């Protein structure tokens, strides 16, 4: 990828840009630990208010800190592909969310940016996706942290997946498990279930078997998310590999994958 | 709300959403939804707000009904029972309360979004000192959503003329591939060209940039927004302390 043509490239790695993402990740982890360790019995009632506020505010604040640290580091060439990823998320997610399919398919754009430009760009796309999409659908706002995790994981496995495309669904499946665990408290405590009818039916089934709300939502997420992310990773990897070599090699991860292969 | 500075509107919407989430009272949620509808009526967007909110909330409500009411194991006032289905008054009350809470949260943000001048938001972000990258991404995404939908429709029509696709899963998959690849390719090509333009102009420049059009808040907006935010934060703290 080319550097700035007129201005000298900035090093970008200031103390702030290192500290803020760490703080954001720590806040997300602390929020998750607090909700899971302190709240499981009250969650069964579904109507308690403090876990909802903690899940909403803690995850969102963590995601915004992450974004504030990562965004100024990204070069213009990476920055311009983030809106493309966001638009893909919004267009596909809005369509699939209104159908009775127990998948979301709202992270293909995030994964695509992660596979092209790496971890930081993937995580930033995840958070920005939730922030900008909330202008069209506010219910996605508290899921910003989960979306950041998906983008970060896509960037982490990008080179591997682009060298061997068959590994994309496997990596997506594993990323889906982590995303499910991170996002389940938001679905359980903020929305008292899930944000879709088909996924709600699965949670209802687990509730009928006697599981608590958090356990039911986590189990449902562990069914839906790995499959959803496996599809998202596979589609995104195939899209990257279907791009002409000239365009593909403008981005760091495909370039690294190609160099490893040669 | 359209005449307010974008950040003032955001402060009001965020405060209302957070208080309704923390208070968790059905009457407060209902009052917030009603207030949003009244404000929407004054702006002449009641139908748009109701339609968008219904599209966003319908799957959520259905989910909450299935999770809390239809298979409720604990409620004592059973309305319908058969097989795994056990619909109870308690379950319906829980689902209704959650539904109203989410409705208040979603409606207040949708009202903000529908009455927001998105270009003013981008300008306000640029003026506020947040990284220029954030303003660029918000502006680019808002502009790209309709442009991408238009481009997708044009590609679909072109592929249909070529006879791509057909009936059955294989045909649909082929049609989806023939739509997705050129769409993503063209979008990335545009993005690459935009990045050269941005780099040529030294993006992101330093914090001091010339603003050709500025968005300013009226004198009362900043103190009122600060008071509203502080009151909301205090209310949330009191409500949460009471709930524990």
From TrEMBL, chain A:
Keywords: Membrane, Transmembrane, Transmembrane helix. This is Glycosyl transferase family 9. The chain crosses the membrane at residues 20-38, 50-71, 77-105, 112-136, 142-162, 169-191, 230-247.
From TrEMBL, chain B:
It is found in: Membrane. The keyword Transmembrane helix applies. The chain crosses the membrane at residues 26-42, 49-71, 91-114, 224-243. It is a multi-pass membrane protein. Pfam families: CbiQ (PF02361). Keywords: Cell membrane, Membrane, Transmembrane, Transmembrane helix. It comes from the Bacteria. This is Energy-coupling factor transporter transmembrane protein EcfT. It comes from Arthrobacter mangrovi. The lineage of its organism: Bacteria, Bacillati, Actinomycetota, Actinomycetes, Micrococcales.
